[in-house]
């Protein structure tokens, strides 16, 4: 019997990594391996951890990554392990850049040492585009990269290293620039999830009826994470090595609209208050992507309505708040 192909997900315990693992398992044609740090929480993969091969690995350690790649011999690599939140990059720029760039280099160098040539997806971000002017919208792959945070700079570096290693060493690297994605298990530091958590806590009587927000005017292009990870798979299955692809819904929403949509899912009445601590030194006013290039190549199409995405996210936080209250009452 022919052995299934092997897929390696770095950062499998994270938000996108856990959803990607679930999707790949649902295909029933892949052996799934995933990396985690020794201190990583397994909460996001608790339902599937016995169905995947979980390997402890610090992707910043080159020798560990070489051992990992040699032992797994993956056909596909989804490099999702990274420092992914923008605000900490302002306070710890060196750590953000070192973590993201070094881990990516380690993956590439380990792949170079392999006899096989796996397909590697580099999960980039719309933040790479940074300062986008109105006449440049919607954003396509050829838009200039004008990063506005140390995090974005680190992702541009990873993106361009992917291009360089493909051209220099013929590694099968496919680069994606995903616009905002959200859904259940999104980290609470991200705006959509933070809004949902605050609402769930107000509903449960755990906090006053005040919702704190940051830049309420910023516009972002949201896709459900469960649709986004399908795009990640299509990127390695049908994507052309050396190419870069924008992954986006094609519609931008102001953060005020996001909160309004969440508040329609609850009966509570709240005050909305801007928190200066949530404002960034520089912010991108408008991000809206055009993924025509990727859609024509792969047939990918986001399917989950934004309202369902937010309902599922809010229900996730309602359950967490309820569970935390139960544990606190013991």
Overall number of strands:
13
As for the CATH topology of the largest domain, it is Rossmann fold
Distance between the termini: 51 Å
Helix-and-strand structural type? alpha/beta
Overall pLDDT confidence: 93
Read across the widest sheet, the strand sequence of neighbours is 3-2-1-4-5-6-11
CATH-scheme architecture of the largest domain: 3-Layer(aba) Sandwich
Percent of residues in beta strands: 15-25%
Large-scale geometry: globular
pLDDT under 50 segments (min length 5)?
A: none
* Percent of residues in helices: 40-55%
CATH superfamily of the largest domain: NAD(P)-binding Rossmann-like Domain
Number of domains as seen in the coordinates:
2
What's the total helix number?
Answer: 10
What can be said about the biggest beta sheet?
A: 7 strands, parallel
N-to-C order of helices and strands:
EHEEHEHHEHEEHEEEHEEHEHH
CATH class of the largest domain: Alpha Beta
Rg, alpha carbons? 20 Å
């Amino acid at each position: 019997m022919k052995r299934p192909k092997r897929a390696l997900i770095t950062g499998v315990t994270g938000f996108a990594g856990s959803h990607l693992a679930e999707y790949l398992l649902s295909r029933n044609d892949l052996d799934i391996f995933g990396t985690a740090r020794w201190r990583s929480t397994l909460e996001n993969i608790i339902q599937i951890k016995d169905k995947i091969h979980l390997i402890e690995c610090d992707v910043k350690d080159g020798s560990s990554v070489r051992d990992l790649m040699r032992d797994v011999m993956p056909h596909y690599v989804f490099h999702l392990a990274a420092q992914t939140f923008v605000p900490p990059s302002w306070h710890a720029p060196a750590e953000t850049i070192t973590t993201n760039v070094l881990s990516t280099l380690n993956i590439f160098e380990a792949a170079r040492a392999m006899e096989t040539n796996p397909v590697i997806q580099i999960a980039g971000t719309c933040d790479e585009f940074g300062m986008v002017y109105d006449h440049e919208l919607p954003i396509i792959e050829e838009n200039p990269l004008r990063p506005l945070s140390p995090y974005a700079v680190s992702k541009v570096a990873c993106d361009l290293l992917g291009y360089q290693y493909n051209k220099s060493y013929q590694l099968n690297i496919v680069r994606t620039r995903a616009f905002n994605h959200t859904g259940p298990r999104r980290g609470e530091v991200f705006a959509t999830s933070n809004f949902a958590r605050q609402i769930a806590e107000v509903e449960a009587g755990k906090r006053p009826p005040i919702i704190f927000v940051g830049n309420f005017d910023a516009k972002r292009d949201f896709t459900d994470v469960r649709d986004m990870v399908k795009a990640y798979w299509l990127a390695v299955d049908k994507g052309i090595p050396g190419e870069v692809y924008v992954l986006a819904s094609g519609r931008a929403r102001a953060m005020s609209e996001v909160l309004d949509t969440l508040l329609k899912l609850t009966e509570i009445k709240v005050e909305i208050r801007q928190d200066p601590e949530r404002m960034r030194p520089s912010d991108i006013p408008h991000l809206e992507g055009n993924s025509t290039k990727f859609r024509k190549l792969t047939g990918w199409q986001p399917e989950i309505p934004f309202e369902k995405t937010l309902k599922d996210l809010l229900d996730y936080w309602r359950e967490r708040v309820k569970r935390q209250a139960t544990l606190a009452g013991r």
